[in-house]
User: Which sequence fits this backbone?
């Protein structure tokens, strides 16, 4: 999707006009975001350190208990502890977000490199492919992938990745075309370096740095997209906890047990906000370094 | 357009499941062999794939989108009936998103760091809200709680409020991000500085000079936004029980109704193309530099 | 044993189940049944708005295909030859009486006199013949009705009001088959218009007439002012009280309930259990609980392949799984645990609670005996290096969220005995795909049919052979010659007592072989605004009827 391009604009814009003002300590917001991401990292690597009980332990008699000291985020329809499930779901959710982004990025990279280096005909061809993919609404593309390959967390991830690929491809192509005509590439060409070496040594590193920032921002959105697929019943499989799936399952009980959806929802929003803020801070740092 | 049609045709063929089964009421039906054969003949499904493909292209060229497997009515008629509702929903949502985004970004820029941070927080949060969840919350508050708006859209203006707002809020989050950044950018432009030097008030400057500047990137995004809204419409139309393209598409995908899916995809591609042209024109109108270029 | 099949539970007390329950008790030949739950005289006029959560039909003619959403709507404008009353007895409707021959191969139906379809075509024996031909014509693409008419060779019009069904083999389920909406009578002139037109607005003899269909929005039904043919258990004579019904399609359950609360609609179907529980404590709503006939919701164990080809492993699974607490919590007391293969709506349903008593120790012993003695790191049992894994495809279209959660609890409790249940949430097509490929050890699939003959469809070994579509109904893959012969005999005997006995023996044998774990009746509920009076569910396939309904206040 092209919220990517949109994010690119914002990333660059914010970096541009912030450069002169900020040159000292990181903002408190950035610190908070870093702390949150740190917590997410712990929850991903060693969830058992932070959860309070087995996230899959079922106690039908304790279903639908509101948040309390024993169950910080309440219990769900099977009496499972929502807080522990949110923690246990971190790894799956982030995995979906990160791998979807990586898939989109990798595909976008291939298409983008092909378009900008494969000569005129290939550029034209690849551009048409990108445009065709672009004309599909993202959810439709994802739906098609899922119906073809069967539902499940893996296909959901691939589907989300695929639907973000055309956006990345367009940006990468734009970047590469820009860099290709820059002075240092001209210089390298004059020095007689092979195209492959130029690509590897100069073009990719220069194109990848902004992409990396962009990708941190993509993770949150990928989780939201995967959540929409879970709502349609095509996401993670039980009993695995996953934020999107929890959100989708809890929606049924929203009027009576809002805590089932509020907390996983907060995690998704929190993750998106935190990674975006860190991404921006990174860009600022990158610009200052130049 | 041709590429889109081809891609859709083959993508749907990849879907496991027999279209003849789909026509006979889904895989759970216990259709007899005779009935299956009959359907295959009627719809030309007994022909080789390439023949089916060419037949589809030939029909498309003449503007015939084919007949729905499931509903047995011409696809063009079917989509024609649904297009209006969805476009109304999408365009209204786009307008509301624009207004929300403009309001938020005007409010949050140039008022110091706190306002900026709050604005940024609201934008990011709004953009990260899944439609299905937002819709449920809005229904709980405004239908069940306050009783202001009906939860099921029945074609009345009041019924449109919640679906439009559900679609608009996340989009407004995206648009506001872009607008705020370009507003900030605009505030440092020479013409703003000179206006300020002339003694114009801050509000005056905002309204007169910077909005136009800020809206440029947002305008060029509107084509994309409309496609994005159509994705969202799948969910929103289901929740609010509105007739529309999104629901048609979802039903067609589950029923493996190839002609309808192809039709919807072609229609959306067409809307995308038209929208690109429209946004081009709109940005020319908003940006004098582009207008001159166009005139040359 | 079987409870009353259709119960209106009063908003304030569930123990009043049977007391308030019987909607209509009656079945004298006439139609003078007292108005149930009447609070004042019926008021003429008004439009009732119905919000349906079932899929929107693709064709309103239930002869085409033949699924439940079609039946829901068709019940308003089409009528059948016979109906069923609360006790499960077949009662007259469009046919006044019927008489099988001694060999059971011909049935003469005497039709009601003076009935006309809403297009003016008279309802006569010729019309019955046309309808059966329509069902049996491959071009109609009928599935459910086609199967129901499987043993009918042809229908002859003996005279205007006598239709003779000529069968190929005796069929004790013929009347039950004819009571279903999928075999309802339509105007021959309507059928002759061709499928496309007939799908848009089928013409019947019912109390309402299809007036228009706005796709994805609603079907408009208006009163049939010349209506004269209510079933024998109806509450009054003559045309319906309601002037019109607006039948809306509202797929999202939360939106449906919100619309009912806001007074935007008068009746909703498929409410979620938590919604029913909330509405139950509210005088503003009435709950109609009408479990579907046919099979109960149950988990089938695939005995056709390892590990469930071993009866000890099947029994171990059933003993290990604990569902009662889950049903109580997830369904908020709206669903009652079943111990029978058949719906409680079936008179001949046989239950045996003792067979399904959870007992973890017994389960462990059985598994040890069966050779599943090793355990891997996750505590899952192994035998010869194979893990005791059970694939469980779950259809997200057919299992409501509460049921999906229940399956997660099944997964958790089965794990204690060392089963690794792998739940796969699938869309309908992928789900059928998994079944066709035998990629399942456990599965849950609903099946609605009037009468105990559903057992033959679900557990006769013939049903293991797939239909051309790949579909097979015997998902337990139960292959037992004795069950086969009991079910075949039951389907062809004309002696009521012998039939009941044969079905009881068959059920004992099926349950005793641990092929299935019954859960509860196929949930089928309606929530009504308290102002809606006189609505009830048909005792045939539990679709609602609004013929006797009226709007108070």
Assistant:
């Amino acid at each position: 999707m092209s919220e990517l391009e949109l994010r690119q604009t914002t990333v660059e814009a914010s970096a541009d006009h912030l450069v002169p003002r900020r040159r000292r300590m990181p903002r408190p917001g950035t610190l908070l975001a870093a702390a949150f991401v740190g917590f997410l990292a712990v929850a991903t690597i060693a969830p058992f350190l932070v959860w309070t009980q087995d996230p899959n332990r079922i106690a039908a008699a304790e279903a639908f208990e509101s948040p309390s000291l024993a169950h910080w985020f309440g219990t769900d329809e099977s009496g499972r502890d929502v807080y522990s499930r949110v923690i246990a779901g971190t790894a799956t959710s982030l995995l979906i977000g990160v791998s979807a982004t990586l898939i989109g990025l990798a595909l976008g990279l291939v298409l983008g490199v092909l378009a900008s280096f494969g000569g005129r005909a290939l550029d034209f061809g690849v551009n048409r492919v990108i445009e065709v993919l672009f004309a599909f609404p993202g959810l439709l593309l994802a739906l098609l992938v899922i119906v073809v390959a069967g539902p499940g967390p893996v296909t959901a991830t691939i589907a989300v990745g695929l639907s973000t690929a055309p956006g990345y491809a367009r940006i990468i192509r734009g970047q590469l075309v820009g860099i290709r005509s820059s002075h240092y590439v001209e210089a390298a060409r004059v020095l007689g370096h092979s195209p492959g070496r130029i690509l590897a040594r100069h073009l990719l590193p220069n194109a990848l740095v902004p992409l990396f920032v962009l990708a941190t921002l993509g993770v949150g959105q990928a989780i939201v997209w995967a959540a929409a697929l879970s709502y349609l019943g095509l996401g993670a499989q039980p009993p695995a906890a996953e934020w999107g799936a929890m959100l989708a399952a809890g929606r049924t009980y929203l009027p009576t047990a809002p805590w089932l959806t509020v907390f996983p929802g907060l995690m998704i929003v929190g993750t998106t906000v935190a990674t975006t803020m860190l991404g921006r801070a990174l860009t600022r740092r990158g610009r200052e370094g130049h | 357009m041709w590429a889109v049609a081809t891609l859709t045709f083959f993508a749907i063929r990849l879907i496991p499941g027999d279209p003849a089964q789909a026509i006979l009421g889904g895989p759970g039906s216990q259709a007899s062999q005779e009935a299956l054969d009959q359907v295959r003949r009627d719809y030309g499904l007994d022909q080789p794939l390439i023949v089916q493909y060419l037949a589809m292209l030939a029909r498309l060229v003449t503007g015939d989108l084919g007949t729905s497997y499931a509903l047995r009515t011409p696809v063009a008629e079917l989509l024609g009936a649904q297009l209006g509702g969805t476009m109304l929903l999408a365009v209204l949502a786009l307008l509301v998103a624009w207004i929300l985004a403009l309001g938020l970004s005007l409010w949050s820029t140039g008022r110091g760091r706190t306002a900026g941070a709050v604005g940024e927080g609201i934008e990011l949060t709004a953009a990260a809200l899944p439609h299905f969840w937002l819709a449920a919350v809005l229904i709980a508050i405004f239908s069940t709680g306050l009783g202001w708006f009906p939860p099921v859209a029945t074609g009345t203006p009041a019924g449109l409020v919640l679906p439009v707002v559900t679609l608009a809020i996340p989009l407004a989050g995206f648009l506001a991000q872009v607008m705020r950044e370009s507003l900030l950018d605009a505030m440092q432009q020479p013409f703003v500085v000179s206006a300020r030097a002339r003694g114009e008030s801050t509000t005056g400057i905002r309204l007169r000079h910077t909005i136009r500047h800020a809206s440029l990137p947002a305008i060029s995004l509107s084509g994309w936004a409309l496609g994005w809204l159509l994705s969202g419409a799948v969910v929103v139309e289901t929740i609010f029980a509105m007739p529309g393209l999104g629901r048609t598409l979802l039903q067609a995908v589950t029923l493996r109704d190839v002609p309808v899916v192809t039709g919807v995809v072609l229609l959306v591609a067409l809307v995308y193309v038209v929208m690109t042209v429209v946004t081009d024109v709109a940005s020319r109108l908003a940006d004098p530099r582009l207008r001159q270029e166009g005139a040359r | 044993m079987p409870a009353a099949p259709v119960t209106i539970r009063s908003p304030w007390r569930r123990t009043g189940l049977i007391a308030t329950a019987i909607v209509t008790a009656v079945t004298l030949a006439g139609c003078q049944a007292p108005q149930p739950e009447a609070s004042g005289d019926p008021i003429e006029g008004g439009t009732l708005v119905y919000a349906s959560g079932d899929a929107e039909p693709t064709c309103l003619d239930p002869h085409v295909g033949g699924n439940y959403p079609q039946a829901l709507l068709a019940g308003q404008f089409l009528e059948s030859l016979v109906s069923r009353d609360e006790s499960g007895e077949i009662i007259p409707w469009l046919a006044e009486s019927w008489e099988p021959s001694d060999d059971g191969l011909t049935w003469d139906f005497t039709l009601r006199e003076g009935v006309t379809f809403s297009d003016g075509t008279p309802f006569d024996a010729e019309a019955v013949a046309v309808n059966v031909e329509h069902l049996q014509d491959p071009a109609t693409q009928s599935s459910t009705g086609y199967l129901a008419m499987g043993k009918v060779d042809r229908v002859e019009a003996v005279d205007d009001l006598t239709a003779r069904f000529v069968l190929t083999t005796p069929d004790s389920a013929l009347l039950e088959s004819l009571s279903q909406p999928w075999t309802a009578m339509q105007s021959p002139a309507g059928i002759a218009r061709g499928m496309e037109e007939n799908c848009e607005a089928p013409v019947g003899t019912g109390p309402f007439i299809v007036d228009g269909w706005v796709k994805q929005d609603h079907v408009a039904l208006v009163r049939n002012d010349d209506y004269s043919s209510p079933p024998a258990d109806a509450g009054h004579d003559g045309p319906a009280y309601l002037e019109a019904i607006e039948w809306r399609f509202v797929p999202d359950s939360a939106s449906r309930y919100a619309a009912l609360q806001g007074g935007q609609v008068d009746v909703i179907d498929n409410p979620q259990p938590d919604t029913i529980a909330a509405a139950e404590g509210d005088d503003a709503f009435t709950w109609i609980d009408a479990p579907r006939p046919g099979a109960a919701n149950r988990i089938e164990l695939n005995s056709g392949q390892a590990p469930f080809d071993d009866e000890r492993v099947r029994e171990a699974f059933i003993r290990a799984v604990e569902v009662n607490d889950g049903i109580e919590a997830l369904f908020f007391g709206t669903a009652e645990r079943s111990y029978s293969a058949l719906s409680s709506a079936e008179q001949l349903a046989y239950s045996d609670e003792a067979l399904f008593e959870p007992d973890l120790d017994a389960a462990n012993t059985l598994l040890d005996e069966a050779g599943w003695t090793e355990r891997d790191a996750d505590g899952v049992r192994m035998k010869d290096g194979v893990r005791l894994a059970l694939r469980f495809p779950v259809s997200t279209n057919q299992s409501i969220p509460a049921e999906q959660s229940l399956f997660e609890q099944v997964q958790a409790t089965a794990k204690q005995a060392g089963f690794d249940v792998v739940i796969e949430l699938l869309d309908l097509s992928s789900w059928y795909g998994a079944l066709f490929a035998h990629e399942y050890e456990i599965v849950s699939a609903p099946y609605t049919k009037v009468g105990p003959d559903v057992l033959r469809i679900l557990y006769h070994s013939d049903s293991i052979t797939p239909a051309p579509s790949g579909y097979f109904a015997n998902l337990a893959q139960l292959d037992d010659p004795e069950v086969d012969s009991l079910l075949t005999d039951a389907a062809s005997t004309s002696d009521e007592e012998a039939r009941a006995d044969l079905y009881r023996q068959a059920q004992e044998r099926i349950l005793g072989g641990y092929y299935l774990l019954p859960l509860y009746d196929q949930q089928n509920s309606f929530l009504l605004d308290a102002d809606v009076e006189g609505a009830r569910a048909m005792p045939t396939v539990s679709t609602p009827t609004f013929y006797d309904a009226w709007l108070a206040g």
